[in-house]
């Protein structure tokens, strides 16, 4: 009989814990799924928007070279999905590839070897062919994607921690306390008598002592989730960042087109004079395929603003509403269970409840929260010298994810802070904000710190390889293995200004 009641007591207890924590599990599971669907579809829409815009404007001229842009979105997806990807490297590599192609297009009358174009991209930071756009896009995209990934990972971690923390096994002392409060009245002929509220609290605090120790780190975790979600709907808005990719790329190419003469002059001075393309003559602007359309910017109605049937503001608002009541969950769980009329008498029935011995008021004080406070628990004997290993592991998991979320609030990605000197994958430039990116923030303009051209090889992403022979940079003014600009890209950006004269000077960039 006693064994049967003990098993029933344990089942009742575990069922109550599971039922009262269900809203946590449901919230984290559903919110993670909704945000994940939204972020992934937002990236899809951003790529689709760019393809549609550029294909509509340039047709075959864009589609033949779309792989340059496709690679960018492949890497953005890989980063969001948790891949070991540096956003700073991804964007730097994209601009390097783009400057080589656009430079060939604004100078269709010349041939350029691989080494020559490598020289061009190597000195892109000095030339700034795209103006300030690469830096601004790097900050905007990096901060938004770092925050989005941190939030998605944080929600998934919250789900897993709740799953683990609620998979309890009640020890013998806990079961004994549960059985005494719930089934001793039955043995005394008072089956309808519920345990006093304070008695129930002491039993539950003893049984859930280790879970209560999660409280501090749990609250820090919930606060960090809340703050990152606020960043996402504010200065780190991923909708705005995703929409801006195609627009800012267009602006960058327009800038290089408009400044092609001065940029090309500097390149010829630094990398050497290229060889004229065979069978090609220098053309005047009027001869430069006037029927072609220049790059342009796009109006807001052409850009995607929502995904997965919702929008970011709605998702964040719903999440914040659900996060607020999660604070203090683990220390309040004993109260939640004992407030259930099936588990304990109402607090107002202090004189008409089971006090552990008979009907009457429960006199002992209610113990504090957490393992150490159970040293004087009158209902459950707890060994405070032996903390639960699994609970300590959960505390460490909470600390790790909270640290990631806190760094994401300042645009920093912990996975790349050491390798990029704390730049947070190119997004951790403290105080770096732009009026056209973040409304309400003043402009700051620190120098553009472009990462090294060839960083150490990342095992998750093979290094960029060129198929060429010879030295790394230009040799004898570009007379190495050559190919025409038209064979490299198969299209030209026109109307473009061709250089009136070919500057013949010794190369300065080695």
Q: Any descriptors?
A:
510 residues; mainly alpha; 3-stranded antiparallel beta sheet; 3 strands; 53% helix; 2% strand
Helix fraction, binned, reads: 40-55%
Query: How many helical stretches?
Result: 18
Rg on CA atoms, Å = 32 Å
Strand order of the largest sheet: 2-1-3
Residue-averaged pLDDT, rounded?
79
Structural summary, described in words:
- The protein starts with a helix and ends in a 21-residue tail after the last helix.
- The chain has a three-stranded antiparallel beta sheet.
- The longest helix has 37 residues.
- With 510 residues, the protein is an all-alpha fold.
- The protein is rod-shaped, with a radius of gyration of 32 Å.
- The protein is 53% helix and 2% strand.
Summarize the topology.
Blueprint: H1 2-20, H2 22-58, H3 60-63, H4 67-80, H5 87-106, E1 110-113, H6 114-122, H7 124-127, H8 133-165, H9 172-187, H10 197-207, H11 209-212, H12 215-233, H13 238-258, H14 260-271, E2 275-276, H15 312-323, H16 329-338, H17 389-408, E3 482-484, H18 485-489
Antiparallel strand pairs: 1-2, 1-3
Helix pairs in contact: 1-9, 2-4, 2-8, 2-13, 2-15, 4-5, 5-6, 5-8, 8-12, 8-13, 8-17, 9-10, 10-16, 12-15, 12-17
């Amino acid at each position: 009989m006693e064994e049967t009641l003990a098993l029933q007591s344990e089942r009742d207890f575990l069922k109550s814990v599971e039922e009262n924590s269900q809203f946590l599990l449901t919230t984290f599971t559903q919110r993670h799924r909704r945000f994940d669907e939204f972020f992934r579809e937002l990236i899809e829409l951003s790529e689709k928007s760019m393809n549609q815009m550029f294909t509509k404007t340039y047709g075959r001229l864009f589609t033949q070279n779309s792989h340059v842009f496709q690679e960018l979105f492949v890497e953005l997806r890989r980063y969001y999905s948790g891949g070991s990807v540096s956003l700073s490297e991804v964007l730097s590599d994209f601009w390097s590839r783009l400057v080589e192609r656009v430079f060939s297009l604004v100078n269709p009358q010349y041939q350029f070897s691989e080494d020559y174009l490598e020289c061009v991209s190597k000195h892109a930071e000095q030339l700034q062919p795209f103006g300030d756009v690469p830096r601004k896009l790097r900050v905007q995209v990096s901060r938004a994607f770092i925050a989005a990934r941190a939030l998605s990972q944080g929600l998934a971690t919250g789900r897993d921690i709740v799953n683990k923390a609620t998979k309890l096994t009640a020890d013998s002392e806990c079961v004994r306390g549960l059985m005494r409060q719930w089934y001793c009245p039955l043995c005394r002929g008072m089956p309808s008598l519920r345990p006093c509220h304070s008695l129930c609290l002491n039993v539950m605090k003893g049984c859930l002592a280790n879970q209560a120790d999660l409280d501090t780190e749990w609250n820090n975790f919930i606060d960090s989730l809340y703050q990152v979600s606020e960043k996402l709907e504010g200065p780190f808005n991923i909708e705005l960042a995703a929409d801006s990719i195609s627009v800012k790329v267009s602006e960058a190419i327009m800038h290089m087109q408009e400044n092609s003469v001065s940029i090309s002059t500097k390149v010829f001075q630094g990398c050497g004079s290229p060889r004229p393309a065979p069978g090609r003559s220098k053309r005047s602007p009027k001869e430069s395929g006037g029927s072609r359309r220049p790059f342009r910017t796009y109006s807001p109605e052409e850009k995607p603003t929502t995904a997965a049937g919702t929008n970011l503001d709605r998702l964040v608002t719903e999440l914040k509403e659900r996060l607020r009541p999660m604070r203090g969950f683990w220390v309040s769980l004993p109260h939640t269970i004992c407030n259930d009329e099936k588990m304990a008498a109402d607090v107002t029935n202090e004189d008409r409840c089971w006090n552990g011995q008979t009907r009457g008021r429960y006199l002992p004080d209610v113990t504090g929260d957490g393992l150490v406070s159970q040293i004087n628990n009158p209902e459950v004997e707890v060994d405070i010298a032996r903390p639960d290993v699994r609970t300590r592991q959960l505390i460490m998991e909470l600390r790790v994810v909270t640290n990631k979320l806190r760094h994401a609030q300042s645009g920093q990605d912990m996975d790349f802070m050491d390798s990029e000197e704390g730049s947070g994958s190119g997004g951790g430039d403290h105080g770096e904000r732009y009026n056209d990116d973040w409304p309400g923030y003043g402009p700051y303009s620190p120098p553009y710190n472009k990462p090294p051209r060839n960083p150490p090889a990342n095992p998750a992403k093979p290094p960029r390889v060129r198929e060429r022979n010879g030295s790394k940079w230009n040799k004898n003014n570009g007379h190495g293995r050559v190919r025409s600009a038209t064979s490299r890209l198969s299209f030209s950006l026109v109307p473009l200004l061709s250089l009136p004269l070919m500057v013949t000077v010794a190369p300065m960039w080695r």
